Amino acid sequence: MKALVYHGPGNKSWEDVPDATVQEPTDVVVKVETTTICGTDLHILQGDVAAVTDGRILGHEAVGTVTAVGDAVRGFSVGDRVLVPAITKCGRCEYCQRGMPSHCQTVGGIGWIFGHLIDGTQAEYVRVPYADTSLYAVPSEVTDEQAIFLADSLPTGYEVGVLAGNVRPGHTVAVVGAGAVGLSAVLTTGLWGASKVIAIDSNKFRLEKALEFGATDVVEVGPGTVGDVVALTDGLGVDVAIEAVGYPETLLTAASLVRPGGTIANVGVHGTPVELPMQDMWISNVTLTMGLVDTVSIPTLLKMVASGRIPAEKMGTHRFTFGQIDEAYSVFADAAANLALKVVITP
Amino acid sequence: MKALVYHGPGNKSWEDVPDATVQEPTDVVVKVETTTICGTDLHILQGDVAAVTDGRILGHEAVGTVTAVGDAVRGFSVGDRVLVPAITKCGRCEYCQRGMPSHCQTVGGIGWIFGHLIDGTQAEYVRVPYADTSLYAVPSEVTDEQAIFLADSLPTGYEVGVLAGNVRPGHTVAVVGAGAVGLSAVLTTGLWGASKVIAIDSNKFRLEKALEFGATDVVEVGPGTVGDVVALTDGLGVDVAIEAVGYPETLLTAASLVRPGGTIANVGVHGTPVELPMQDMWISNVTLTMGLVDTVSIPTLLKMVASGRIPAEKMGTHRFTFGQIDEAYSVFADAAANLALKVVITP
Amino acid sequence: MKALVYHGPGNKSWEDVPDATVQEPTDVVVKVETTTICGTDLHILQGDVAAVTDGRILGHEAVGTVTAVGDAVRGFSVGDRVLVPAITKCGRCEYCQRGMPSHCQTVGGIGWIFGHLIDGTQAEYVRVPYADTSLYAVPSEVTDEQAIFLADSLPTGYEVGVLAGNVRPGHTVAVVGAGAVGLSAVLTTGLWGASKVIAIDSNKFRLEKALEFGATDVVEVGPGTVGDVVALTDGLGVDVAIEAVGYPETLLTAASLVRPGGTIANVGVHGTPVELPMQDMWISNVTLTMGLVDTVSIPTLLKMVASGRIPAEKMGTHRFTFGQIDEAYSVFADAAANLALKVVITP
Amino acid sequence: MKALVYHGPGNKSWEDVPDATVQEPTDVVVKVETTTICGTDLHILQGDVAAVTDGRILGHEAVGTVTAVGDAVRGFSVGDRVLVPAITKCGRCEYCQRGMPSHCQTVGGIGWIFGHLIDGTQAEYVRVPYADTSLYAVPSEVTDEQAIFLADSLPTGYEVGVLAGNVRPGHTVAVVGAGAVGLSAVLTTGLWGASKVIAIDSNKFRLEKALEFGATDVVEVGPGTVGDVVALTDGLGVDVAIEAVGYPETLLTAASLVRPGGTIANVGVHGTPVELPMQDMWISNVTLTMGLVDTVSIPTLLKMVASGRIPAEKMGTHRFTFGQIDEAYSVFADAAANLALKVVITP
């Protein structure tokens, strides 16, 4: 089969590799019919993720069809259309049992293993461990181009942003950064009755998208960002500030936007320390959350996509074939300039 | 009447002042029969709290008897024995209605006003605004020397440490800093079924006290602190790390102790920024909480003291009269060296 | 002034009564500019509510303007436009402090006192006790004809139905009974992301209204009701069944609709016992909730009405003046036949 | 091997049966070293549980050693000491994933299958399906005679009583019925900080045990039961009333004991309908919960037993060998008269 293989910083190639096969009785093999690229894949290519070594097949998001099942698999059969999520879940460790497979102790202390600790989904076929507890059947009302965004970006915005942020009916919510993950948070805040959703970005295209995705207000980044956002509230700031970028400045902006008793939900992947003004914050009764997605919200999100309440397909702005995967990476690597949110890659 | 008056950094005096009187129909006046000193009073005396100006009566904790009531007060009468908590609660603003009077919008955006924005409790009498919603009747089973610690330190350890930290049955809890507030957290973790409570301090006296207060383990601060604590868990760290000191190092220690998915509950008052290693923490699914006490747990704590489950009186290690208040401050200012936790001051 | 006075079962009259005045320092007087009739008013007129005695002014819902304030009132001034909710809240008793003023211990062990234990709102003026903690300012974006439904019916459907029922994103919800309160539940389930809202009634007009109010499906009552509803789910029943009628059969229907682990939220006012099939239900892990509204959700609902997410005005189907109040009662007493939901009564 | 086989109402025998073997790759076989009898076993023997048919091996609680493992089992090995809980959990269905395996859709719509839908644990060996997600390793600090009560009775009292009842620090709790399950609730309320635990029974031995197990007060059943219990509260009743018997009268007693806003947690197994006084209850803002245990609290309970906070061994009052299992049933069938709580049965 063919797959996109990592060969050290800056190097990748779409090349022949051994076929994916069932290795454990709990495995299945999935023929990949739709995949996409995540910001993390770009980090890997820059050499930022030491655990990814030469020879690793990249990618951790897929929709496809089951082509082989291990002896112990009971929930899926050959021919089933499935969503392969970013997180693998053994289902039996303490973390899986409490609904936090992001830290599955069985598969490596971290639930993100595709394209990281094992071969990934940017390939013609992918081996999926712990299939019974990890895979999701895709309802017939949901298209591949909707489902693919439920593998990682939508649950990330929803779980690490909206759920961790504890959005509740009537809340005002600010989303700092309107890229794919920030927009996923915008798209799902409505599930919890937010009264106002304010998207903040420096890119006009993304702010336009934010309004399309359900933001009630947008603020272009500038010297007056904090004041502009607070002016859209009762003067005390927002109930929930979702950080979806991953830089010290954006986290500090989020911290400045939140009212006493509010929540700062950090979704961004950080590369450096952040100096928090604890001398001012300690008295503010705020909560700061952070973390990797668990993807346990996928059943809920599938229902909401199926019922039309979440137009997940809006995330896909550009389409490519496997053969054009290099081009897909190029476009996504400079997403804002290319007016791209997420790319859709099919055979 | 006599009161302890602040006269700028380093200066205070027990002197004659005008009598406390009812000024609003919702006020009462309380004759102070027991008061104490808080770490915040020491900060004020160092000039660290700009809002406290020359002439202000200090103190925000008292137990006493009502001597006068305003026309609109319905819940308290002259002669009632009451607890005056650190936080004043108007009862009608959005923050009071959601149980977060720490940020009461009516009394100043912050609920701590005694000895800060209005005259305080280190005095023979104190005026208490919004008495109906702020005061608590003291049950007959609870002594003054128990009740006084429910004005601030016990609810602080409980609310900002144990409740914000989301301690649940079976959890392992580390408390960084075993001073009065850290020990208050130790004393109240049992209410939520912690399986292991590990107190961490550099002072042997405090560690001994921690064991008396219910800690299951103690760790003396040293180069191996983090490893020693983690070794007392299953190797992943504690579920809840309570920071009760207020320095960058102690907050970073707390952050190092917590397992994936755990909570760092910051109780300490910070004077400087803290550089958080977000490059490591973002993926850990931890939550960091912080804030001022609301004192809304006082009814629960009063019940637990009355039923004997919380031996609050153990917090009081030294006793003074109003006339010895300077000495009380001296002892408390160097509490660890003086083997002191909290001082009890009576007429 | 004039008011609607109860004179024993079946008797009421719009007559001259002494003017409403401030009696306590915490009172205000409100000039009633909009009021309405509640199902409970009909029960009173049938003599079903023993606590209501001859001479009592009826009604517990109003929007109007403050005309006088007691000495201790700080949150409202003469001229303020306010919502008078069904529940009076002292703000200081244990129940008020935990957000459950439906059982305010100060005003009578029950928070519903207007038109019940004290004179009510179907009058030119009404005295409002504990005004600071009970009244709500009406934002300028909200009209009187929207606000009036937030005095009782909308919060009842929302709090006792949607909130008590613990509706969460992705849930399927059945609402048994599509009268004013059932429709209030339909109108507010969206705040919690329900994926499917099934309204059940025997009246076609109400089912049409249910679709207008946000129901995704309707089921006309018949021998196959339970099967029809379950067929709209995955075969196991709904997550939340809201009972909004108040008869044994309707509560048993709700109980039959709910899946294992679901919630039956009883909103209906019952007049007789209900025989629950505990021999079947004990194993089902369901929860049954019930209760009087607290009206503490009014601030949230006001925000959602102001932002356009809840079209509260749709509840008002018929308009009357004070002089036509008898006619208003006649229409409302036979609401279904008159294609009425709620009536709006103005001077 | 030998096992206790059901042969229709009133008939059972300890007889030779085919050996338990691994049938599915996810199975293990456990050598039973300790088992016990549950009230449900008595119901089965009375012919009350139609799903149990002639030839079924009884029992759903065991502690023992793994003797064989299926190919897909990764969490357990031959020789491991394990707890076999009453509930089997596939780990992948919607109910298992939300922590409610009591209604596991895979194993039969109900998670209780041992001694019910498949052969049980009152045998020398037992086949355990879905072993990786169902079994629990027993820590070395926990003895077999402690662990056996964590298979069903302790988690039942804790989950269906204490957790469903939403016990919180400071609460008053009444437990109606001080048999094995009621006492399990008494034993575990302390994990949630109850301030008062009132046990109610007609049997003096059980009331004595209740005091030993942590009850603060006991009330002997009589005409004044409700008044006696309410007098132990502030006059409004208890926060949580746990019903642990299963008769209409006991459920109605529990309902009479609870204060406005409280919870009635039904643990009892009912055989007939119960007429609830909804005409009085609808306004009381109470919650009624019920259900089968999930056994998901076992990890927490194991920690608390290991740390000495839950003296589980106190539940075992009588000891028998497999050969004496008929006698064990006789003693347990008349537990109160025999001063028995739970029996311990070993090879």
Automatic annotation (TrEMBL), chains A, B, C, D:
<dbReference type="InterPro" id="IPR036291">
    <property type="entry name" value="NAD(P)-bd_dom_sf"/>
</dbReference>
<dbReference type="Pfam" id="PF08240">
    <property type="entry name" value="ADH_N"/>
</dbReference>
<keyword id="KW-0560">Oxidoreductase</keyword>
<dbReference type="InterPro" id="IPR013149">
    <property type="entry name" value="ADH-like_C"/>
</dbReference>
<comment type="similarity">
    <text>Belongs to the zinc-containing alcohol dehydrogenase family.</text>
</comment>
<dbReference type="InterPro" id="IPR011032">
    <property type="entry name" value="GroES-like_sf"/>
</dbReference>
<protein>
    <submittedName>
        <fullName>Zinc-dependent alcohol dehydrogenase family protein</fullName>
    </submittedName>
</protein>
<keyword id="KW-0862">Zinc</keyword>
<dbReference type="InterPro" id="IPR013154">
    <property type="entry name" value="ADH-like_N"/>
</dbReference>
<feature type="domain" description="Alcohol dehydrogenase-like N-terminal">
    <location>
        <begin position="25"/>
        <end position="132"/>
    </location>
</feature>
<keyword id="KW-0479">Metal-binding</keyword>
<feature type="domain" description="Alcohol dehydrogenase-like C-terminal">
    <location>
        <begin position="180"/>
        <end position="295"/>
    </location>
</feature>
<dbReference type="InterPro" id="IPR002328">
    <property type="entry name" value="ADH_Zn_CS"/>
</dbReference>
<dbReference type="Pfam" id="PF00107">
    <property type="entry name" value="ADH_zinc_N"/>
</dbReference>
